[in-house]
Amino acid sequence: TDAAGSAETDATGLRTPIVAVLGHVDHGKTTLLDTVRGSAVQEGEAGAITQHIGATAVPLDTIGEMAGSLVDPDDFDLPGLLFIDTPGHHSFSTLRSRGGALADIAVLVVDVNDGFQPQTLEALDILKRTETPFVVAANKVDTVPGWNPQGHVPIQQSIDAQSDRAEGDLNDRLYGIIGEMSDNGFSSDMYWRVQDFRANIGVVPVSAKTGEGIPDLLTVLMGLSQRYLKEDMSVDVAGPGAGTVLEVKEERGFGTTIDIVLYDGTISADDTVVVGGKNEPIVTEVRALLQPRPLAEIRTEKQFEKVDSVAAATGIKVAAPDLDDAMAGAPVRVVRDRPVEEVIEAVEAELSQIDVETADNGVVVKADTLGSLEAIANALEEAEVPIVRAEVGDVAPRDVAVASTADEPTHEAILAFNVEVLPDAKQQASDQNIRVFSDDVIYQLVEEYEEYVTGIQEAQQEQVLDKIARPCRFQILKDHTFRQSNPAVVGVEVLSGTLKRNSNVVKWENGDAHRVGQLKTLQDDGEDIDEARTGDRVAASIDGPTVGRQIEEGDELWAELPEKHAKILEQELREELPTDEREALQMYLDKQRKRDPFWGK
Ligand code: GDP
């Protein structure tokens, strides 16, 4: 087999470790990657870096030059580092593949001013779950007040040039980060004090803007890879390729293409490949392998250059028919000299690990990659939210159609992570009252949905409360009989609870509640009112009794509470009741249970 173009793999068959850069938005991931690329180009002239599709390879020699005295290239036999370029968005997939991680190693970027933020925590969570070795880049050290920028130098050299005040200030921030790491279950320290980088995470102070500390970061990444990843890096580079889809993209002249990171073996322009698809694995013939043109030729018409074959680790665009249903985060396998069924099974097996549990009823979930879909499904499972449909892709009209057949209002919802809501879908959702929640932080997305559910439940409880009789104790005032009967009209004071029109009125006699009539109207100062609360004195007309016979001035009366209502109030709505109603309810229950201990149970 021919493995031309395997620039990122040396003769011994050690491949380049793949590095993912993660962190909260605006903490400096893009700037960090640009700086690594830019300074590599400055240091090493042509050939210093190779631009891949979705990734940048920095060879060992260039790292040696950039890191100066910190690195002796003779200490290393790994070929360099391959940085995945699409920071953030694909963290869930770059860190997720075949029972482990696509990225071999990661940089967690944390802004020293901003500290840990939601996406920092999410990144930490995935790092923990995938057991990916990583370092923390404590970024933006140049923003410490009074900082005296030193350019592209090792951090110790820069710190030596700072005032005591600025150095102290920086240390405070770094210890803040170390503290937050510890709060999240990671032991960490300044990288120069770390002996065992697996037991203790190294914190590297850097400025992605000025370049301070970048030599240190590269050195630590190189050292970490060399020490702990070397075995994983020994691969059969000539074997059939294996990789992960980073992005599915429409490309003029090529139709739907996939950008992949190849982490094992070789892919050639005449290979048959199997790609994870939305419904089933896609078996297709590679039509072209495409690389970005070198910088010098970037002005030519064509953006890409065709290559015959590439070997891991590399980022490459694959043009092939039938890729419309390919999913970001899905596996890609080269078939070569193997039965195609075997490869399809391998892809299915890998996909089944990411299979999301769905139920007959629940919410619709859409996400940008398989990895993020899995992460969101985990979060929803923890929150006990069932999922009816989970897919990679933008929110489309058919998602709205599914949501609109939901069994209950809380399921008339679509949760969208890092994807677009297509205009048709937006319109249909608003027409059909389907709520669409969009966010790029998983726990915020889940929280927004949970708040919405709480809102619905409260509204439902209020409706129930409206229909249900409410406990109320009131008393007929002395000398306040305005009419004796048909109906009786008397002044009353509400002792506890809420008195409502149309309630049945009972009086306790010999331990039994006797219905004496029905409360017709309530008036306050001649105005009709619907209800009166504890402490209110109002005029009440009661149909049925005659004052002086069934009821007397000074009598304590109750709004009748049907047993079923009492049960709902006590068992489901107790917490929602105001204190005075709760007290009235308790008194009513106590009275009834003196006669029948199981009343309302
Ligand atoms: P991303 O969202 O994590 O990719 O963050 P960016 O790389 O886009 O950076 C966000 C903002 O922070 C931009 O305005 C950068 O110029 C700025 N920034 C990034 N790194 C540094 C740094 O080391 N120092 C300073 N002063 N600003 C930085």
Automatic annotation (TrEMBL):
Coiled coil: none annotated. Gene3D superfamilies: P-loop containing nucleotide triphosphate hydrolases, Translation factors, Translation initiation factor IF- 2, domain 3. It comes from the Archaea. Keywords: GTP-binding, Initiation factor, Nucleotide-binding, Protein biosynthesis. CDD domains: aeIF5B_II, IF2_aeIF5B_IV, IF2_eIF5B. Residues 14-229 form the Tr-type G domain. GTP binds at residues 23-30, 85-89, 139-142. GO terms for molecular function: GTP binding; GTPase activity; translation initiation factor activity. The keyword Transport does not apply. Belongs to the TRAFAC class translation factor GTPase superfamily. Classic translation factor GTPase family. IF-2 subfamily. Function in general translation initiation by promoting the binding of the formylmethionine-tRNA to ribosomes. Seems to function along with eIF-2. This is Probable translation initiation factor IF-2. It comes from Halosegnis marinus.
